[in-house]
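=== Given protein ===
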Amino acid sequence: MIDLYYWTTPNGHKITMFLEEARLPYRIKPVNIGKGEQFAPEFLKIAPNNRIPAILDHAPIDDGKAVPVFESGAILLYLADKTGRFIPSDLRGRNEALQWLFWQMGGLGPMAGQNHHFVQYAPEPIPYAMDRYVKETSRLYGVLNKHLADGREYIAGEYSIADMACYPWIVPYERQQQNLDDFPHLKRWFERVRARPGTERAYAVAERINSAPVVDDESRKWLFGQDASTIR
């Protein structure tokens, strides 16, 4: 059994996508980040960066004590290695999947996240920041679109953790002020991933946990107003 510490964010969706695809037994431990539950001491023991998702694997492959893992990319890789699924076994295929996993972790996620913040959540509009991150999001869409232009079905050939990492960050494309019609190869890939039963099940889980995400003054305090004093 795997405990999944989860909330309905793109990074949270990555892990439910894997777990649903692999049909691994798991139980969700909701961490409502709008109420500050990510700063609870019990959660910080598993996720010291006070971010979801995190897992606690009670059945690791070495049959030892439960293994905690935080950071969504690390969790995807851990689960892929645990199951031997959704990551190519050959050297070149594995390397390609990992490159795109790290591309998402270091590029698409952070840049789209800043896009979300300055376009959707900042208390006042900052045109330079909005323009900067909307354009950078567009550039990253273009990078992935070009990669997919050779007609491949998935990012690393076969469906992998690279697709699971990237897809949830494309889902809010309209909020990111992007038009998928401008990226036809990405759009084809996006629709293919969206139609997978595992993806459908993962997003159905999100609806049961938090069907109407709200950012208000209280949640802004927890989401955007923290410094080092919070975790001391």
